[in-house]
Write a structure and sequence with these properties.
Number of domains: 3
Largest sheet: 10 strands, antiparallel
CATH superfamily of the largest domain: Hypothetical Protein Pfu-838710-001
Shape: globular
Number of helices: 19
Distance between the termini: 44 Å
Structural class: alpha+beta
CATH architecture of the largest domain: Beta Barrel
Strand content: 15-25%
Radius of gyration: 26 Å
Order of helices and strands: EEHHEHEEEHHHEEEHEHHHHHHHHHHHH
Helix content: 40-55%
Length: 544
Protein backbone atom coordinates (compact mmCIF):
# COMPACT_ATOMS: atom_id res chain seq x y z
CA UNK A 1 0.00 0.00 0.00
CA UNK A 2 1.30 3.42 -0.94
CA UNK A 3 2.59 5.42 1.98
CA UNK A 4 0.25 8.38 1.42
CA UNK A 5 -2.73 6.14 2.14
CA UNK A 6 -1.48 5.52 5.66
CA UNK A 7 -1.76 9.20 6.51
CA UNK A 8 -4.91 9.67 8.62
CA UNK A 9 -6.00 12.64 6.54
CA UNK A 10 -6.26 10.44 3.45
CA UNK A 11 -9.37 8.72 4.75
CA UNK A 12 -11.18 11.86 3.62
CA UNK A 13 -9.91 11.99 0.06
CA UNK A 14 -12.69 13.40 -2.15
CA UNK A 15 -14.04 11.39 -5.09
CA UNK A 16 -14.28 14.30 -7.50
CA UNK A 17 -13.76 14.11 -11.25
CA UNK A 18 -14.41 10.42 -11.49
CA UNK A 19 -11.80 9.62 -8.86
CA UNK A 20 -12.54 6.14 -7.56
CA UNK A 21 -10.85 4.76 -4.47
CA UNK A 22 -11.84 1.24 -3.54
CA UNK A 23 -10.51 -1.86 -1.90
CA UNK A 24 -9.56 -4.63 -4.29
CA UNK A 25 -10.22 -7.97 -2.67
CA UNK A 26 -9.07 -11.23 -4.25
CA UNK A 27 -10.01 -14.51 -2.64
CA UNK A 28 -11.42 -12.56 0.34
CA UNK A 29 -8.09 -10.90 1.18
CA UNK A 30 -7.60 -7.13 0.89
CA UNK A 31 -4.55 -6.67 -1.33
CA UNK A 32 -4.39 -2.94 -2.05
CA UNK A 33 -6.23 0.33 -2.48
CA UNK A 34 -6.95 1.32 -6.06
CA UNK A 35 -7.15 4.97 -7.03
CA UNK A 36 -8.47 5.67 -10.50
CA UNK A 37 -9.19 8.88 -12.35
CA UNK A 38 -11.72 8.40 -15.14
CA UNK A 39 -12.13 10.83 -18.05
CA UNK A 40 -14.30 10.69 -21.16
CA UNK A 41 -13.23 11.53 -24.69
CA UNK A 42 -15.07 11.61 -28.00
CA UNK A 43 -14.26 8.75 -30.42
CA UNK A 44 -13.08 11.38 -32.92
CA UNK A 45 -10.39 12.47 -30.43
CA UNK A 46 -8.95 9.00 -29.78
CA UNK A 47 -6.33 9.30 -32.52
CA UNK A 48 -5.09 12.62 -31.10
CA UNK A 49 -4.88 11.05 -27.66
CA UNK A 50 -2.83 8.10 -28.94
CA UNK A 51 -0.41 10.52 -30.61
CA UNK A 52 -0.07 12.73 -27.55
CA UNK A 53 3.66 13.18 -26.82
CA UNK A 54 3.14 12.90 -23.07
CA UNK A 55 1.92 9.32 -23.43
CA UNK A 56 5.05 8.31 -25.34
CA UNK A 57 7.32 10.40 -23.14
CA UNK A 58 6.29 8.75 -19.88
CA UNK A 59 5.55 5.21 -21.10
CA UNK A 60 8.00 2.66 -19.65
CA UNK A 61 6.52 -0.31 -21.54
CA UNK A 62 4.98 -0.84 -24.94
CA UNK A 63 1.17 -0.63 -24.99
CA UNK A 64 -0.71 -3.92 -24.81
CA UNK A 65 -4.24 -4.60 -25.95
CA UNK A 66 -7.05 -6.81 -24.67
CA UNK A 67 -10.53 -7.52 -25.96
CA UNK A 68 -12.82 -7.69 -22.94
CA UNK A 69 -16.40 -8.96 -22.92
CA UNK A 70 -18.39 -8.87 -19.68
CA UNK A 71 -21.88 -10.21 -19.03
CA UNK A 72 -23.62 -8.72 -15.98
CA UNK A 73 -26.15 -10.82 -14.11
CA UNK A 74 -29.01 -9.90 -11.81
CA UNK A 75 -32.53 -10.96 -10.87
CA UNK A 76 -35.69 -9.61 -12.55
CA UNK A 77 -36.19 -7.23 -9.60
CA UNK A 78 -32.49 -6.21 -9.72
CA UNK A 79 -31.50 -7.61 -6.35
CA UNK A 80 -27.81 -6.81 -6.81
CA UNK A 81 -28.50 -3.31 -8.09
CA UNK A 82 -30.75 -2.55 -5.12
CA UNK A 83 -27.93 -3.55 -2.78
CA UNK A 84 -25.32 -1.47 -4.63
CA UNK A 85 -23.52 -4.53 -5.92
CA UNK A 86 -22.60 -5.87 -9.34
CA UNK A 87 -22.08 -9.46 -10.51
CA UNK A 88 -20.35 -10.10 -13.81
CA UNK A 89 -18.57 -12.80 -15.78
CA UNK A 90 -15.78 -11.49 -18.04
CA UNK A 91 -13.97 -13.21 -20.88
CA UNK A 92 -10.26 -12.39 -20.63
CA UNK A 93 -8.34 -14.12 -23.40
CA UNK A 94 -9.60 -17.70 -23.17
CA UNK A 95 -10.57 -17.54 -19.49
CA UNK A 96 -13.89 -16.64 -17.90
CA UNK A 97 -13.52 -14.66 -14.64
CA UNK A 98 -16.47 -13.97 -12.35
CA UNK A 99 -16.40 -10.85 -10.16
CA UNK A 100 -18.66 -9.66 -7.39
CA UNK A 101 -18.35 -6.03 -6.36
CA UNK A 102 -20.20 -5.23 -3.16
CA UNK A 103 -19.97 -3.55 0.21
CA UNK A 104 -19.73 -0.09 -1.28
CA UNK A 105 -18.98 2.58 1.32
CA UNK A 106 -18.64 6.32 0.94
CA UNK A 107 -16.99 8.25 3.74
CA UNK A 108 -16.80 11.95 2.90
CA UNK A 109 -16.35 11.14 -0.77
CA UNK A 110 -13.98 8.21 -0.24
CA UNK A 111 -15.34 5.33 -2.30
CA UNK A 112 -14.42 1.89 -1.04
CA UNK A 113 -15.70 -1.26 -2.72
CA UNK A 114 -14.79 -4.86 -2.10
CA UNK A 115 -14.15 -7.25 -4.97
CA UNK A 116 -14.06 -11.04 -5.08
CA UNK A 117 -12.90 -12.91 -8.19
CA UNK A 118 -12.49 -16.49 -9.35
CA UNK A 119 -12.35 -18.46 -12.57
CA UNK A 120 -15.46 -20.19 -13.88
CA UNK A 121 -15.75 -22.76 -16.69
CA UNK A 122 -18.10 -20.69 -18.82
CA UNK A 123 -20.21 -17.50 -19.13
CA UNK A 124 -22.32 -18.18 -16.00
CA UNK A 125 -21.64 -17.23 -12.37
CA UNK A 126 -20.79 -19.92 -9.84
CA UNK A 127 -22.40 -18.61 -6.65
CA UNK A 128 -21.21 -21.50 -4.51
CA UNK A 129 -17.58 -20.71 -5.28
CA UNK A 130 -18.17 -17.00 -4.67
CA UNK A 131 -19.80 -17.65 -1.31
CA UNK A 132 -16.75 -19.72 -0.30
CA UNK A 133 -14.48 -16.78 -1.14
CA UNK A 134 -16.62 -14.39 0.84
CA UNK A 135 -16.36 -16.36 4.05
CA UNK A 136 -18.97 -18.20 6.06
CA UNK A 137 -20.08 -15.22 8.17
CA UNK A 138 -20.40 -12.75 5.30
CA UNK A 139 -23.87 -11.32 4.69
CA UNK A 140 -23.36 -11.69 0.95
CA UNK A 141 -22.18 -15.29 1.31
CA UNK A 142 -25.46 -16.24 2.96
CA UNK A 143 -27.42 -14.45 0.25
CA UNK A 144 -25.51 -16.11 -2.56
CA UNK A 145 -26.17 -19.61 -1.26
CA UNK A 146 -29.94 -19.10 -1.34
CA UNK A 147 -31.29 -21.33 -4.10
CA UNK A 148 -33.97 -18.83 -5.06
CA UNK A 149 -31.33 -16.26 -5.96
CA UNK A 150 -29.37 -18.66 -8.16
CA UNK A 151 -32.50 -19.78 -9.99
CA UNK A 152 -33.55 -16.21 -10.76
CA UNK A 153 -30.23 -15.01 -12.15
CA UNK A 154 -30.26 -13.84 -15.73
CA UNK A 155 -28.00 -11.72 -17.99
CA UNK A 156 -29.13 -8.09 -17.94
CA UNK A 157 -26.55 -6.36 -20.15
CA UNK A 158 -23.15 -6.81 -21.77
CA UNK A 159 -20.06 -4.66 -22.18
CA UNK A 160 -17.63 -5.18 -25.05
CA UNK A 161 -14.55 -3.03 -25.42
CA UNK A 162 -10.94 -3.07 -26.49
CA UNK A 163 -8.55 -1.94 -23.78
CA UNK A 164 -5.14 -0.46 -24.57
CA UNK A 165 -2.84 -0.22 -21.55
CA UNK A 166 0.33 1.82 -21.02
CA UNK A 167 2.52 1.71 -17.93
CA UNK A 168 3.73 5.22 -17.10
CA UNK A 169 6.23 6.81 -14.76
CA UNK A 170 5.40 10.47 -14.19
CA UNK A 171 7.95 13.26 -13.49
CA UNK A 172 7.72 13.11 -9.69
CA UNK A 173 7.96 9.33 -9.64
CA UNK A 174 4.31 8.21 -9.61
CA UNK A 175 3.72 4.83 -11.25
CA UNK A 176 0.48 4.91 -13.26
CA UNK A 177 -1.45 2.50 -15.43
CA UNK A 178 -3.14 4.33 -18.29
CA UNK A 179 -6.02 2.46 -19.95
CA UNK A 180 -7.97 3.48 -23.05
CA UNK A 181 -11.32 1.67 -23.40
CA UNK A 182 -13.32 1.73 -26.64
CA UNK A 183 -16.46 -0.26 -27.24
CA UNK A 184 -20.09 -0.33 -26.15
CA UNK A 185 -22.55 -1.29 -23.43
CA UNK A 186 -25.45 -3.32 -24.85
CA UNK A 187 -28.90 -4.44 -23.72
CA UNK A 188 -31.02 -6.21 -26.34
CA UNK A 189 -30.80 -4.05 -29.47
CA UNK A 190 -29.86 -0.87 -27.60
CA UNK A 191 -26.30 0.16 -27.01
CA UNK A 192 -24.29 3.16 -25.85
CA UNK A 193 -20.63 3.78 -26.70
CA UNK A 194 -17.68 3.43 -24.35
CA UNK A 195 -14.86 5.88 -25.00
CA UNK A 196 -12.89 6.70 -21.89
CA UNK A 197 -9.51 6.63 -20.26
CA UNK A 198 -8.59 5.61 -16.73
CA UNK A 199 -5.49 6.62 -14.84
CA UNK A 200 -4.85 4.12 -12.06
CA UNK A 201 -2.25 5.04 -9.45
CA UNK A 202 0.06 2.15 -8.61
CA UNK A 203 2.36 4.14 -6.35
CA UNK A 204 3.20 7.75 -5.60
CA UNK A 205 1.31 11.01 -5.10
CA UNK A 206 -2.32 11.02 -6.40
CA UNK A 207 -1.90 14.70 -7.23
CA UNK A 208 0.21 13.63 -10.19
CA UNK A 209 -2.86 11.98 -11.74
CA UNK A 210 -4.53 15.38 -11.91
CA UNK A 211 -1.42 17.13 -13.19
CA UNK A 212 -1.06 14.57 -15.97
CA UNK A 213 -4.76 14.72 -16.86
CA UNK A 214 -4.63 18.52 -17.07
CA UNK A 215 -1.61 18.31 -19.36
CA UNK A 216 -3.45 15.85 -21.60
CA UNK A 217 -6.50 18.08 -21.67
CA UNK A 218 -4.56 20.95 -23.21
CA UNK A 219 -4.50 19.00 -26.49
CA UNK A 220 -7.45 16.58 -26.10
CA UNK A 221 -10.90 17.76 -24.90
CA UNK A 222 -11.32 15.35 -21.98
CA UNK A 223 -14.43 15.55 -19.82
CA UNK A 224 -15.22 14.35 -16.32
CA UNK A 225 -16.50 10.78 -16.05
CA UNK A 226 -18.26 9.60 -12.90
CA UNK A 227 -20.53 6.84 -14.19
CA UNK A 228 -19.22 3.28 -14.27
CA UNK A 229 -19.83 0.85 -17.11
CA UNK A 230 -22.17 -1.11 -14.85
CA UNK A 231 -24.23 2.01 -14.10
CA UNK A 232 -24.57 2.69 -17.83
CA UNK A 233 -25.74 -0.86 -18.37
CA UNK A 234 -28.39 -0.64 -15.67
CA UNK A 235 -29.55 2.66 -17.15
CA UNK A 236 -30.16 0.81 -20.43
CA UNK A 237 -31.87 -2.13 -18.77
CA UNK A 238 -34.15 -0.12 -16.46
CA UNK A 239 -34.17 3.55 -17.51
CA UNK A 240 -34.99 5.96 -14.70
CA UNK A 241 -34.86 9.73 -14.35
CA UNK A 242 -31.56 10.97 -12.92
CA UNK A 243 -31.57 11.01 -9.15
CA UNK A 244 -31.64 14.32 -7.29
CA UNK A 245 -28.83 14.30 -4.71
CA UNK A 246 -29.24 16.41 -1.60
CA UNK A 247 -26.55 17.18 0.95
CA UNK A 248 -25.65 14.12 2.99
CA UNK A 249 -25.17 14.36 6.73
CA UNK A 250 -21.53 14.69 7.75
CA UNK A 251 -20.45 12.59 10.73
CA UNK A 252 -17.22 14.09 12.03
CA UNK A 253 -15.24 12.19 14.68
CA UNK A 254 -14.43 14.45 17.62
CA UNK A 255 -10.69 13.76 17.35
CA UNK A 256 -10.34 15.32 13.89
CA UNK A 257 -7.96 18.18 13.25
CA UNK A 258 -8.87 21.38 11.42
CA UNK A 259 -7.26 20.07 8.22
CA UNK A 260 -9.04 16.72 8.38
CA UNK A 261 -12.35 18.46 8.94
CA UNK A 262 -11.70 20.72 5.97
CA UNK A 263 -11.07 17.75 3.69
CA UNK A 264 -14.10 15.84 4.93
CA UNK A 265 -16.49 18.77 4.50
CA UNK A 266 -15.16 19.74 1.07
CA UNK A 267 -15.51 16.14 -0.08
CA UNK A 268 -19.12 16.09 1.12
CA UNK A 269 -19.90 19.25 -0.85
CA UNK A 270 -18.24 17.87 -3.97
CA UNK A 271 -20.30 14.70 -3.71
CA UNK A 272 -23.50 16.77 -3.85
CA UNK A 273 -22.24 18.83 -6.79
CA UNK A 274 -21.15 15.88 -8.89
CA UNK A 275 -24.09 13.74 -7.83
CA UNK A 276 -26.37 16.15 -9.71
CA UNK A 277 -24.26 16.45 -12.88
CA UNK A 278 -26.30 13.91 -14.85
CA UNK A 279 -29.56 15.46 -13.69
CA UNK A 280 -28.45 18.91 -14.91
CA UNK A 281 -26.85 17.79 -18.18
CA UNK A 282 -29.36 15.12 -19.22
CA UNK A 283 -32.48 15.53 -17.08
CA UNK A 284 -35.31 18.05 -16.80
CA UNK A 285 -36.09 18.17 -13.08
CA UNK A 286 -35.54 21.74 -11.81
CA UNK A 287 -34.48 20.27 -8.47
CA UNK A 288 -31.27 18.91 -10.05
CA UNK A 289 -30.09 22.41 -10.88
CA UNK A 290 -31.17 23.64 -7.47
CA UNK A 291 -29.30 20.92 -5.58
CA UNK A 292 -26.17 21.28 -7.68
CA UNK A 293 -26.19 25.00 -6.98
CA UNK A 294 -26.75 24.32 -3.27
CA UNK A 295 -23.75 21.97 -3.33
CA UNK A 296 -21.67 24.67 -4.98
CA UNK A 297 -22.79 27.26 -2.44
CA UNK A 298 -21.95 24.88 0.39
CA UNK A 299 -18.52 24.29 -1.13
CA UNK A 300 -17.83 28.00 -1.44
CA UNK A 301 -19.06 28.50 2.12
CA UNK A 302 -16.67 25.79 3.31
CA UNK A 303 -13.77 27.39 1.45
CA UNK A 304 -14.73 30.67 3.09
CA UNK A 305 -14.62 29.14 6.57
CA UNK A 306 -11.02 28.08 6.05
CA UNK A 307 -9.90 30.93 3.78
CA UNK A 308 -7.40 32.35 6.31
CA UNK A 309 -5.69 28.96 6.63
CA UNK A 310 -6.05 27.17 3.29
CA UNK A 311 -6.68 30.06 0.89
CA UNK A 312 -8.19 28.54 -2.26
CA UNK A 313 -6.41 30.06 -5.31
CA UNK A 314 -8.10 33.04 -6.97
CA UNK A 315 -8.15 31.27 -10.35
CA UNK A 316 -10.24 28.45 -8.91
CA UNK A 317 -12.52 30.89 -7.09
CA UNK A 318 -13.15 32.71 -10.36
CA UNK A 319 -14.09 29.45 -12.08
CA UNK A 320 -16.47 28.57 -9.29
CA UNK A 321 -18.05 32.01 -9.77
CA UNK A 322 -18.50 31.24 -13.48
CA UNK A 323 -20.21 27.94 -12.69
CA UNK A 324 -22.40 29.61 -10.08
CA UNK A 325 -23.62 32.17 -12.62
CA UNK A 326 -24.44 29.46 -15.16
CA UNK A 327 -26.46 27.49 -12.61
CA UNK A 328 -28.08 30.56 -11.05
CA UNK A 329 -29.54 31.78 -14.33
CA UNK A 330 -31.23 28.43 -14.90
CA UNK A 331 -32.37 28.12 -11.29
CA UNK A 332 -33.76 31.68 -11.10
CA UNK A 333 -35.89 31.22 -14.21
CA UNK A 334 -37.09 27.74 -13.24
CA UNK A 335 -38.02 28.88 -9.71
CA UNK A 336 -39.80 31.91 -11.12
CA UNK A 337 -41.69 30.04 -13.84
CA UNK A 338 -42.91 27.33 -11.52
CA UNK A 339 -42.78 28.38 -7.86
CA UNK A 340 -43.39 32.14 -8.00
CA UNK A 341 -45.89 32.24 -10.86
CA UNK A 342 -47.72 29.14 -9.61
CA UNK A 343 -48.49 30.95 -6.36
CA UNK A 344 -49.72 34.03 -8.19
CA UNK A 345 -51.88 32.06 -10.63
CA UNK A 346 -53.38 29.99 -7.79
CA UNK A 347 -54.52 33.21 -6.08
CA UNK A 348 -55.52 35.12 -9.24
CA UNK A 349 -56.89 32.46 -11.60
CA UNK A 350 -59.36 34.94 -13.09
CA UNK A 351 -56.61 37.25 -14.35
CA UNK A 352 -56.18 36.79 -18.11
CA UNK A 353 -52.75 36.60 -19.67
CA UNK A 354 -51.01 34.86 -16.76
CA UNK A 355 -50.95 31.51 -18.55
CA UNK A 356 -49.14 33.02 -21.54
CA UNK A 357 -46.75 34.84 -19.20
CA UNK A 358 -45.90 31.57 -17.46
CA UNK A 359 -45.55 29.72 -20.76
CA UNK A 360 -43.04 32.32 -21.96
CA UNK A 361 -41.17 32.16 -18.66
CA UNK A 362 -40.88 28.38 -19.03
CA UNK A 363 -39.52 28.87 -22.54
CA UNK A 364 -36.83 31.26 -21.30
CA UNK A 365 -36.11 28.91 -18.40
CA UNK A 366 -35.59 26.08 -20.90
CA UNK A 367 -33.02 28.13 -22.80
CA UNK A 368 -31.10 28.85 -19.62
CA UNK A 369 -31.35 25.19 -18.60
CA UNK A 370 -29.70 24.25 -21.91
CA UNK A 371 -26.87 26.67 -21.17
CA UNK A 372 -26.39 25.18 -17.71
CA UNK A 373 -26.36 21.67 -19.19
CA UNK A 374 -23.75 22.69 -21.76
CA UNK A 375 -21.61 24.22 -19.02
CA UNK A 376 -21.67 21.07 -16.88
CA UNK A 377 -20.80 18.97 -19.94
CA UNK A 378 -18.01 21.30 -21.03
CA UNK A 379 -14.25 20.89 -21.03
CA UNK A 380 -14.07 24.05 -18.92
CA UNK A 381 -16.08 22.39 -16.16
CA UNK A 382 -13.92 19.27 -16.35
CA UNK A 383 -10.80 21.40 -16.12
CA UNK A 384 -12.18 23.17 -13.06
CA UNK A 385 -12.76 19.84 -11.33
CA UNK A 386 -9.34 18.51 -12.34
CA UNK A 387 -7.62 21.67 -11.11
CA UNK A 388 -9.49 21.70 -7.83
CA UNK A 389 -9.00 17.95 -7.43
CA UNK A 390 -5.27 18.36 -7.89
CA UNK A 391 -5.20 21.17 -5.34
CA UNK A 392 -7.11 19.06 -2.84
CA UNK A 393 -5.25 15.81 -3.41
CA UNK A 394 -1.88 17.52 -3.15
CA UNK A 395 -2.95 19.53 -0.07
CA UNK A 396 -1.35 22.52 -1.80
CA UNK A 397 -2.60 24.95 0.85
CA UNK A 398 0.43 23.81 2.86
CA UNK A 399 2.86 25.14 0.24
CA UNK A 400 2.84 28.74 1.49
CA UNK A 401 2.07 28.21 5.19
CA UNK A 402 4.44 29.29 7.92
CA UNK A 403 4.71 27.43 11.22
CA UNK A 404 1.72 29.32 12.64
CA UNK A 405 -0.41 28.18 9.72
CA UNK A 406 0.73 24.57 10.05
CA UNK A 407 -0.06 24.66 13.74
CA UNK A 408 -3.55 25.98 12.95
CA UNK A 409 -4.16 23.00 10.64
CA UNK A 410 -3.25 20.62 13.47
CA UNK A 411 -5.54 22.16 16.10
CA UNK A 412 -8.70 20.27 17.15
CA UNK A 413 -11.63 20.74 14.80
CA UNK A 414 -14.00 21.05 17.77
CA UNK A 415 -12.23 24.21 18.92
CA UNK A 416 -12.36 25.70 15.44
CA UNK A 417 -16.05 24.77 15.08
CA UNK A 418 -17.02 26.44 18.37
CA UNK A 419 -15.24 29.67 17.50
CA UNK A 420 -16.72 29.70 14.01
CA UNK A 421 -20.32 29.11 15.08
CA UNK A 422 -20.21 31.70 17.84
CA UNK A 423 -18.69 34.28 15.47
CA UNK A 424 -21.21 33.58 12.70
CA UNK A 425 -24.09 33.76 15.18
CA UNK A 426 -22.93 37.13 16.46
CA UNK A 427 -22.58 38.43 12.90
CA UNK A 428 -26.15 37.43 12.08
CA UNK A 429 -27.53 38.91 15.32
CA UNK A 430 -25.70 42.18 14.61
CA UNK A 431 -27.12 42.43 11.08
CA UNK A 432 -30.56 41.41 12.30
CA UNK A 433 -30.81 44.58 14.37
CA UNK A 434 -31.39 46.42 11.08
CA UNK A 435 -34.26 44.16 9.99
CA UNK A 436 -36.81 46.84 10.84
CA UNK A 437 -35.25 49.09 8.19
CA UNK A 438 -37.35 47.17 5.70
CA UNK A 439 -35.07 47.63 2.69
CA UNK A 440 -34.34 44.81 0.24
CA UNK A 441 -30.59 45.46 0.57
CA UNK A 442 -30.76 45.01 4.36
CA UNK A 443 -32.76 41.78 4.04
CA UNK A 444 -30.26 40.51 1.46
CA UNK A 445 -27.35 41.15 3.83
CA UNK A 446 -29.12 39.34 6.67
CA UNK A 447 -30.06 36.45 4.36
CA UNK A 448 -26.43 35.90 3.37
CA UNK A 449 -25.35 35.83 7.01
CA UNK A 450 -28.13 33.39 7.85
CA UNK A 451 -27.14 31.13 4.97
CA UNK A 452 -23.48 31.06 6.01
CA UNK A 453 -24.44 30.31 9.60
CA UNK A 454 -26.79 27.51 8.57
CA UNK A 455 -24.17 25.85 6.36
CA UNK A 456 -21.56 26.11 9.09
CA UNK A 457 -23.94 24.68 11.69
CA UNK A 458 -24.84 21.76 9.44
CA UNK A 459 -21.16 21.11 8.71
CA UNK A 460 -20.37 20.78 12.43
CA UNK A 461 -23.74 19.43 13.58
CA UNK A 462 -22.41 15.97 14.50
CA UNK A 463 -20.03 17.47 17.06
CA UNK A 464 -22.91 18.51 19.35
CA UNK A 465 -25.91 16.82 21.03
CA UNK A 466 -28.92 16.62 18.73
CA UNK A 467 -31.23 18.17 21.35
CA UNK A 468 -29.12 21.33 21.22
CA UNK A 469 -28.58 21.52 17.49
CA UNK A 470 -31.90 20.47 15.97
CA UNK A 471 -34.10 23.27 17.39
CA UNK A 472 -31.45 25.79 16.38
CA UNK A 473 -31.18 24.45 12.83
CA UNK A 474 -34.97 24.28 12.53
CA UNK A 475 -35.39 27.91 13.55
CA UNK A 476 -32.53 28.98 11.31
CA UNK A 477 -33.97 27.01 8.37
CA UNK A 478 -37.40 28.62 8.79
CA UNK A 479 -35.76 32.03 8.90
CA UNK A 480 -33.64 31.33 5.83
CA UNK A 481 -36.64 29.95 3.90
CA UNK A 482 -38.56 33.15 4.61
CA UNK A 483 -35.63 35.25 3.44
CA UNK A 484 -35.29 32.95 0.42
CA UNK A 485 -38.88 33.54 -0.66
CA UNK A 486 -38.45 37.28 -0.37
CA UNK A 487 -35.29 36.99 -2.45
CA UNK A 488 -37.19 34.95 -5.05
CA UNK A 489 -39.74 37.76 -5.20
CA UNK A 490 -36.97 40.33 -5.67
CA UNK A 491 -35.35 38.23 -8.41
CA UNK A 492 -38.75 37.64 -9.98
CA UNK A 493 -39.35 41.40 -10.19
CA UNK A 494 -36.20 41.74 -12.30
CA UNK A 495 -37.25 38.83 -14.53
CA UNK A 496 -40.70 40.36 -14.99
CA UNK A 497 -39.08 43.60 -16.14
CA UNK A 498 -37.04 41.58 -18.64
CA UNK A 499 -40.15 39.82 -19.98
CA UNK A 500 -42.05 43.09 -20.31
CA UNK A 501 -39.20 44.67 -22.27
CA UNK A 502 -38.53 41.64 -24.46
CA UNK A 503 -42.18 40.71 -25.09
CA UNK A 504 -44.29 43.91 -25.13
CA UNK A 505 -47.52 41.89 -25.35
CA UNK A 506 -46.78 40.58 -21.86
CA UNK A 507 -46.25 44.02 -20.30
CA UNK A 508 -49.72 44.18 -18.72
CA UNK A 509 -49.54 40.70 -17.17
CA UNK A 510 -45.99 41.31 -15.96
CA UNK A 511 -47.07 44.58 -14.35
CA UNK A 512 -49.98 42.86 -12.63
CA UNK A 513 -47.70 40.18 -11.16
CA UNK A 514 -45.18 42.80 -10.01
CA UNK A 515 -47.94 44.61 -8.13
CA UNK A 516 -49.23 41.40 -6.59
CA UNK A 517 -45.75 40.45 -5.39
CA UNK A 518 -45.20 43.90 -3.92
CA UNK A 519 -48.32 43.57 -1.76
CA UNK A 520 -47.39 39.99 -0.86
CA UNK A 521 -43.93 41.11 0.23
CA UNK A 522 -45.37 43.51 2.77
CA UNK A 523 -47.28 40.64 4.43
CA UNK A 524 -44.29 38.30 4.35
CA UNK A 525 -41.97 40.90 5.92
CA UNK A 526 -44.31 41.03 8.90
CA UNK A 527 -44.10 37.22 9.28
CA UNK A 528 -40.33 37.46 8.98
CA UNK A 529 -40.18 39.59 12.11
CA UNK A 530 -41.79 36.85 14.18
CA UNK A 531 -39.41 34.22 12.82
CA UNK A 532 -36.49 36.47 13.68
CA UNK A 533 -37.64 36.87 17.28
CA UNK A 534 -37.91 33.09 17.63
CA UNK A 535 -34.38 32.58 16.32
CA UNK A 536 -32.83 35.47 18.28
CA UNK A 537 -33.81 33.80 21.55
CA UNK A 538 -31.61 30.75 20.81
CA UNK A 539 -27.92 30.16 21.48
CA UNK A 540 -25.55 28.83 18.79
CA UNK A 541 -24.61 25.15 18.85
CA UNK A 542 -21.04 25.99 19.84
CA UNK A 543 -22.06 27.91 22.97
CA UNK A 544 -23.13 26.07 26.15
Amino acid sequence: MASFLRHPIRQFLPAEVGLKIHRSVNFSVVTNMEIELKLLLAPADVAAFRRHPLVKQHAITKPRQQQLTSVYFDTPDLHFRQHEAALRVRLVGRNWIQTLKAGSEVAAGLHQRQEWESRVPGPRPDLVTLSTLLGRDSVWAKALTAQALADRLMPVFTTRFRRTVWQLRLPRGAEVELALDQGEVQHDATQVPISEIELELKSGDPGELFDFALALQEAVPLRAGNISKAERGYALYAPQPPAVIKAARIDLPTELTVEQGFQAIVANCLAQIQGNEVGVSQGSDPESVHQMRVGLRRLRAALGLWRKITGCPDALQEEFSWLSKELSAARDWEAFASGTLDKVIASCSEESGLALLQQTAFHVAGKNRQKAAASVSSVRYARLLLSFGGWMQGAHWRDTLDQTGRDALATPLATFAKQTLVHRHRTLKHRGKKLKDGTAATRHSIRLAAKKLRYATEFFESLYPAKRVQPYVLALTSLQDAFGWLNDVSVGDGLLKHLAQTFPDLAHSAGFVRGYLLVSTERDVHKLGKLWQRFAALKPAGKP
